Amino acid sequence: MNAFIKAIAYTLGDNEVTNEQLSSEFPEWSVEKIAQKVGINKRYIASERQTSSDLAVFAAEKLFTAHPETKREDVDFILFCTQSPDYFLPTSACLIQERLGLPTTCGALDFNLGCSGYVYGLSLAKGLVVSGIARNILLLTGETYSKFIHTKDKGNRTIFGDAGSATLISTEGFAEIGDFVLGTDGKGADNLIVKSGAYRHKHPYDDLTFDDKGNPRSSDFLYMNGTEIFSFSQERVPEMVNALITKSGLSPEEIDGYVFHQANSFMLDFLRKKLKIAKDKFYYHMSEVGNTVSSTIPIVLFEKRKENILHGTVLIAGFGVGYSWGGCILNIR
Fold it and tell me: Is 261 labeled as catalytic in the residue annotation?
């Protein structure tokens, strides 16, 4: 039995943050400089009481509304990817089952991954379908990185936005889920991390400092070593892409489109050029939403399908925090 993506929807955080707003807070960064540096014009941030599960539920409700043929009673598994859960326990996916009114015969679990999370979620969903455990899986992503970011951290605030997505994986649909290549290298964990809050370091460090440019550094907020993340990506992503093409028995010329995790425009442009991918085969959708972590790939898939340019054999690739990476081939009808 094969597994397919049947429908996708997404939602964004409540509050729009434009480059003009950020420039007013950080006058040394002009609107043009922000756009040129990261390729993002605006991003959406969750309100104070809005959580990752809220975003996932809103996305799922949009999916059910847009696809009335999709019946809630037919969903038999929920997979929820987040690194900012509502609680340590219970599992957010269990709360989502009740909020969406899905059957109590529905399996539900959370998994903690970031930028590679959507690809990993597709691999789990395909496994459930192919094994006969489930037939209609609701793969949800939801992330509120903004709640981890210090208000003075202009670098991360320009990049990250909050969002949720919902993807229905079933025994039929518009995109057949093909081969995967997955990978992990935990030695890079400290290069994208929030150190305090969980049980390795439960209590705040209270170690906030500022460098000579006014950038904050604290174990109690999101830390990203951009240089190291870039080095990891430029090494691992091309390896993964080439391995996936080979595993699938394809040539680069047979790939009709590429959807990479929307990290920032500089990194994506670098990877595109290194892999010698034509511009018209490489899809972007971050300028108006930002880097939404595990939701970036489904957002691009949704938008490019709406534009009617998503077709044929499409390679998707997620990579980042962990370090973790994953690629998948989609055969789109």
Answer: yes
> What does the pLDDT read at residue 1?
84
Residues 6 or more apart from 308 whose CB is under 8 A from it?
none
Contact 240, 265 (CB under 8 A): no
Catalytic-residue membership of 225 = no
- The whole-number average pLDDT for the span 320-331 is 98
Whether the CA torsion 293, 270, 282, 331 is positive or negative: it is negative
Q: How far apart are CA 126 and CA 129, in angstroms?
A: 5
Of all residues in the chain, the percent with pLDDT exceeding 90 is 96
pLDDT of 200 > 90? The answer is yes
Give yes or no: 291 in active site: yes
DSSP 195: -
From the list 115, 150, 191, 328, the catalytic residue is 115
Looking only at the bridges linking them, the beta strands covering 257-260 and 312-320 are parallel
DSSP string, 116-167: THHHHHHHHHHHHHHTTS-S-EEEEEEE-GGGGS-TT-HHHHHHB--EEEEE
Task: Report the DSSP pairing between strands 15-18 and 4-12.
Answer: unpaired
Which band of pLDDT confidence, cut at 50, 70 and 90, is reported for residue 128?
very high
pLDDT above 90 (res 213): no
Q: If you average pLDDT over every residue of the chain, what do you get?
A: 97
Catalytic residue among 81, 150, 261, 264: 261
CA distance 102 to 89: 20
| Rounded distance between C-alpha atoms, residue 77 and residue 91, angstroms | 14
